[in-house]
Amino acid sequence: MLQNPLHLLHTLILVMDDIANLNELIPGLPSELGLECLTRLPHSAHRVALRVSTHWHALLQSDAFFRHRKKAGRTRKVTCLLQAREQPPHEKPVSPRYGITVFDPESMAWDRVDPVPDYPSGLPLFCQMASCEGSLVLMGGWDPTTYEPLTAVFIYDFRTNGWRRGRDMPEKRSFFAIGSGLGRVYVAGGHDENKNALRTAWAYDPRGDEWASLGRMGRERDECEGVVVGGEFWVVSGYATERQGMFDGSVEVLNIGSGRWSVAEGVWEAGGCPRSCVGVGKDGKVVSWRGLDPGLRVGVCGVRVGTRVVMTGSEYEGAPHGFYLMEMEQGQNRNLTKITPPDGYSGFVQSGCCVEI
Question: Where is the signal peptide (predicted)?
């Protein structure tokens, strides 16, 4: 069904410098029909469409057009995985090198994002990533050569298929919680260069390229996990400096609207590492993806993508890495389907997130 013409025209006006150019999107068609045609263009064709004209280029890369496609239901959610590159068997073993894999659970297609220009041979070790308004935000980690902790921020825009440098993190931290929502990326906890667990938290605005302090949590939380639930940022588990490896069962909750922190006890299984395996069930409660299948016991990572969850893991240390797809609708949250990735996409997955493109 054709979208409201007045809304379509308003979208065009937001992104065009000159209203006289509105009828030049597709010669011979009214501006609202031209916009509707481009709205229906699949994202896979945008790389070519950007070259058609300066007007198409400006429109396809605009924030207004992304919001319009999202409102019209023309965006698609995909999984981005921080994945170790598979090493050819004949080569001498080296430390894992990581890149970003894109998996579309709708089409079952696999692809890779171009390397970060600053790190062409592999991403920073233990870096974190989150999605925000059609972009992928990558931050922190350790330099793969010197193992020094980094504050660098990199943003991949799926509209331009390119990376740009963001403003550095305000302080060095490793193994921190990360989540995204309401146009911001939230980070909290982790530890500093001296392995001291942190209570501080920050919000990053990719569009304005600005950081804002979120105050301090009530407790130190190293190796915690982050997830945004509605209008709240949940920092799950973690441990204090003097309790190395003794994971807490509580969750620190930030009300994003008020900026206030609170603590909820008994939400997570005490002693269990939450890294990359925290999810939110159909009832809105925190769940663990670990143990849902015999092949999901070690190195588990789960990413919710719409009504599905993409999960990876192994049965035991050193076992082959498996990939699974779980449906969340109609009470089928225990119905797992095993996925067979193509050659080159079976490496260990450190973490992941859902991106709407």
Answer: none
